[in-house]
């Protein structure tokens, strides 16, 4: 029976595509206070500033392309005989644009708006703002980015934990291991006796918990990992 693989990606997998990470030198949280743009309180205080922050990140996405790491994971999903679960903390669409068909965005998606009144999601064709009304319920000024903020629960966690517990191998790519619950997946894997591998530019907060850790750029480490998995 071919081993099943559970993959978690973070901002580091998109870094070489030109998408800013959060906690590296020069990362997003060194430029804006996450309390202001990544918490419900921040959105209540100044929704226009939060919309501007995510509108700028949405515009940046139109300038960047997937990199070799995204394409390698799409190839793994396509050609590997066993089950591959791809969970990302990222809100960009680079996995999908590289050809990944099934991506679980536990922190939401930059490309979607969410109506705070009726919960309807819609494609955010262009900038979101307070001037827009929800197409589903008609409520004015009710749209927010469909992004999970600090203090909010990530999406599809029951499904994520079920899939993690069913895996034979847990691979963490490009994440600092600073934010829970994603940062806790490696400890869950260890407790369940699931092998774990970290592929990251440098040791993360949880490196010591992994059975194996390889450090370097994702654009090099991930294609090599996929090549070996397909040859096994
Ligand atoms: P956490 O406590 O793991 O936070 C990690 C770091 O984020 C903290 O060390 C702190 O520096 C900062 N932080 C967290 N909450 C903050 C807040 N309210 N104000 C200022 N700084 C804060 O993260 P968490 O708060 O336990 O996360 C809770 C939920 O939020 C989790 O479910 C997580 O998935 C989600 N989340 C979403 C995002 C996002 O932007 N999509 C970011 C982080 C967390
Ligand atoms: N290749 C591999 N790893 C890289 C690369 C690269 N080219 N560049 C950076 N990294 C690594 C860094 O070493 C760091 O450990 O990616 C990680 C990025 O960490 P963060 O910036 O903290 O991003 P992430 O772990 O995804 O943050 C988790 O926090 O603020 C929230 O919602 C946000 O989902 C995000 C969550």
From TrEMBL:
Cofactor binding remark: Binds 1 zinc ion per subunit.
Annotated InterPro entries: DHS-like_NAD/FAD-binding_dom, NAD-dep_sirtuin_deacylases, Sirtuin, Sirtuin_cat_small_dom_sf, Sirtuin_class_III, Ssirtuin_cat_dom
Cofactor(s) demanded: Zn(2+)
Taxonomy, superkingdom: Bacteria
Molecular function, one GO term: zinc ion binding
Residue stretches making up the Deacetylase sirtuin-type domain: 1-232
Catalyses which reaction(s): N(6)-acetyl-L-lysyl-[protein] + NAD(+) + H2O = 2''-O-acetyl-ADP-D-ribose + nicotinamide + L-lysyl-[protein]; N(6)-succinyl-L-lysyl-[protein] + NAD(+) + H2O = 2''-O-succinyl-ADP-D-ribose + nicotinamide + L-lysyl-[protein]
CDD domains with a match to the protein in the record: SIRT5_Af1_CobB
Subcellular location, record wording: Cytoplasm
Keywords: Cytoplasm, Metal-binding, NAD, Transferase, Zinc
EC number: 2.3.1.286
Entry comment, domain topic: 2 residues (Tyr-54 and Arg-57) present in a large hydrophobic pocket are probably involved in substrate specificity. They are important for desuccinylation activity, but dispensable for deacetylation activity.
Function: NAD-dependent lysine deacetylase and desuccinylase that specifically removes acetyl and succinyl groups on target proteins. Modulates the activities of several proteins which are inactive in their acylated form.
Family statement: Belongs to the sirtuin family. Class III subfamily.
Family annotation (HAMAP family): Sirtuin_ClassIII
UniProt-recorded name of the protein: NAD-dependent protein deacylase
Gene name in the database record: cobB
